[in-house]
Amino acid sequence: MNRSKFLLLITLTLACIVMPLQAQDVASLELVSELRLPGVVNQLGPITNITARALDIWVEDSLAIVTAGPVVHLVNLNDQSNPETISTIELEDGELSWDAKLSNGFAYLAMQSSNDDSTLRIYDVGNPAQPVLVNNYINDTFAGAHNVFVAGNVAFIASFSASGGPDSNPAPIDAGIWMLDISDPANPQDIGQLLDNNDDPIPSVHDLTVVGNRAYIAGWNTGFWVVDFENLDNPSQLSYTIAGNHVYRPFASRSPSTHNVWPSENGNLLWTTDEVIGEQVRVFDISDLDNVLDLGGFRLRGTPIPHNVMVDGEFAYVSHYLDGLQVFRYDAELMEVIRVAEFQSAASIPRGNPFLGAFGIFVLENHVLIGDTSRGLIVVEKGELLNQTSE
Predict the structure, then answer these.
(1) Is residue 22 part of a domain?
(2) Residue 10 placed within a domain
(3) How far apart are CA 303 and CA 168, in angstroms?
(4) Within a domain: residue 203?
(5) Nearest to 328 by CA among 293, 359, 357, 363
(6) 36 located within any domain
(7) Which of 3, 25, 131, 163 lies 20 to 30 angstroms, CA to CA, from 157?
(8) How far apart are CA 77 and CA 91, in angstroms?
(9) 120 - beta bridge partners?
């Protein structure tokens, strides 16, 4: 075989390997509205910073909370074709919040960095036009929070990568989840760390999702964990059982970097994202936690970075930085992950910094919200395809 034919054969072989992951028809979702929030500088180090209009998003009823680092916006979603800023919480110079949750009329800001070693700032947003700080939670064990999740009357704090204060003492905790009783949000009470079966903290927890009484934990280089809770509404009697832990082989890095996780509605599948250049979105069968099955994943071309995932029906919605919003589903008959839809929110962003673009995601009944660093809060229409369910 001559050299040209050999090269053609290699090219066709590689195409056969790659193209099945890329060749399915992909729907383009329609833009409904865009709230162009002001750009603010997020200082990530002595010489590194990014300017962001929006980062993460959470919604309760018709109120959205949108983080941007040094500012956090409360947004009215009564008319999703015309979202409006109600008020803005401005942090002090040098302070950042990248994640926040709404629960029962209160906002919980995870303090990535602060001037006073704060972990959470808790606001009464019953009147979102005038948010009132009711508690500035500071912990004697650690400082700072990267992510927070609220379930029942418990706030789960994950502080992996949080920096605390400029002279943080105590230092940020990189080993696990801290639990907080927020039955009275103005007076939160420490529950303590979540411990594994050896009474050790689950290390390097970056994020978690709680659905029902089950917590799904993104443990960075320890893979993912599943924990069953009792009495989330009555934290004084809180108990839990470690149901499973799974460490998987990564695609682009030497160890898994489990950044974010979200289960399917029936709890049988778990979608994961690793915030690593070149990584893929993965899905696992967790119906038997003693025998977790890797069902495969989907890797976009180029240098993709999947960030956050949220599942609705049979679809996994992923904020995929420079690749915008990407939507996937697992096809049990084909036994592969299929990409079904996208919205290229970041098409006009220069490719130099791969950590820009679609950062946050929140799925509503008929729409999807995107927190985009360069554009702000974006609302797109699901359309007929994504309103179908088969589970």
Answers:
(1) no
(2) no
(3) 35
(4) yes
(5) 363
(6) yes
(7) 131
(8) 23
(9) 110, 137
374/40 Cα distance (integer angstroms)? 10
For the entire predicted model, the pTM comes to: 0.91
Q: Residue 35's domain spans which residues? A: 29-386
Q: Which residues contact 357 (CB under 8 A, 6 or more apart)?
A: 320, 321, 322, 323, 324, 345, 346, 349, 372, 373, 374
d(CA 379, CA 80): 7
Digitized pLDDT (tens) for each residue of the chain, 391 residues in all: 444 433 333 333 333 333 334 445 899 999 999 999 999 999 766 556 889 999 999 999 999 999 999 999 999 999 999 999 999 999 999 899 999 999 999 999 999 999 998 999 999 999 999 999 999 999 877 778 999 999 999 999 998 777 766 665 555 555 579 999 999 999 999 999 999 999 999 888 999 999 999 999 999 999 999 999 999 999 999 999 999 999 998 888 888 899 999 999 999 999 999 999 999 999 999 999 999 999 999 999 988 999 999 999 999 999 999 999 999 999 999 999 999 999 999 888 877 788 899 999 999 999 999 999 999 999 999 998 898 754 4
CATH of the domain at 104: 2.130.10.10
